[in-house]
Amino acid sequence: MKNLILLTAFVSGFSIMGVAQTEDTKANVTLSSTTQSKMSLEKKSHDFGTIEEGVQATVTFTFKNTGNEALVLNSVKASCGCTTPKWTREPIAPGQEGVITAIYNSKGRPGNFTKTVTVKHNGEGGTEFLTIRGVVNRAAPVVTPTVATPEQ
Questions:
Q1: Could you read off the pLDDT tens digit of each residue along the chain, which spans 152 residues?
Q2: Which bin fits 43, alpha (ψ -120 to 50), beta or left (φ > 0)?
Q3: What pLDDT, on a 0 to 100 scale, did the predictor assign at position 145?
Q4: β-pair type (111-121, 39-41)
Q5: Tally of CB atoms within 10 A around 17
Q6: CB of 90 within 8 A of CB of 73?
Q7: Do the beta carbons of residue 119 and residue 72 sit within 8 Å?
Q8: 29 CB contacts (<8 Å, ≥6 apart)?
Q9: CA–CA gap between residue 97 and residue 71 (Å, rounded)
Q10: Nearest C-alpha neighbor of 86 from the set 96, 97, 100, 75
Q11: pTM for this one?
Q12: Which residues contact 34 (CB under 8 A, 6 or more apart)?
């Protein structure tokens, strides 16, 4: 019986300490959205229309930091290896602009295409998706002329 009373007191003591720490932690947490960066894109998609096979189709997406903290692009990744992104790597101050360039390599890729560039940043929302699309016309086959030489 003595052990049961000690066990109950021990468990109760830890429970009270756990609740007290949780309540104390909650009291110290304050959320503030007064300082945050915000990425505002001029456009989120681009249609190249019809391009010829072999063309390096390039588009630049411009954005502005409309927040009040520096905006940092943590990663910019294309949905496949046929699209290469380039972007402003230094922090973008409030009110300043940055760019993300997407280069689509159409060589060997005739037909319709839709590709996505995923942008992860430290601003409001944290992620943006940019889309490029278009149609690639198949290149005309290259015909190499054959030269016949007279036999001797």
A1: 566 565 565 556 555 555 545 444 444 444 455 789 999 999 999 999 999 999 999 999 999 999 999 999 999 999 999 999 999 999 999 999 999 999 999 999 999 999 999 999 999 999 999 999 999 999 877 777 777 677 76
A2: beta
A3: 75
A4: unpaired
A5: 10
A6: no
A7: no
A8: none
A9: 10
A10: 100
A11: 0.69
A12: 68
In the chain, the domains with their CATH numbers are 39-137 (2.60.40.10)
Q: Which residue, among 91, 110, 112, 113, has the nearest Cα to 102 in the 3D structure?
A: 113
Residue 30, number of CB atoms within 10 A of its CB: 5
Question: What's CA 55's distance to the chain center, in Å?
Answer: 24
Residue with tokens 């588009």: 59
- The length of the chain in residues reads 152
Fill in the amino acid letter for 75: S
Contact predicate 123/36, CB 8 Å? yes
For residue 49, give both structure tokens.
Answer: 């229309």
